[in-house]
Amino acid sequence: MKPRITAPLLTAILFITLTCASALAAPSRKALNLLRQFVAEELDDNLDALADFDLATLEGHPLYGAPGRTFDTDDCNLARAIFDILYHDAFPNLSWETLGTGRPYRGDTLNSFHTHFGRPIPDQPGRFLGLERHQPSDTLRARAATFHSTYHTIGNLAPLPNRSLNRVTLNTYRGTHAAWRDAVPIFLENLSLALLNHPDADATLSELVELNADAFHEFRKPGGLALFAQRLDLHEYVHPATGQPIMHYTPNAHFIPQSNPSYIAAANKYIDVSTRLIQQRAERMITRLRPFLDTQRPPAPQ
Question: How much is the pTM?
Answer without folding.
Answer: 0.89
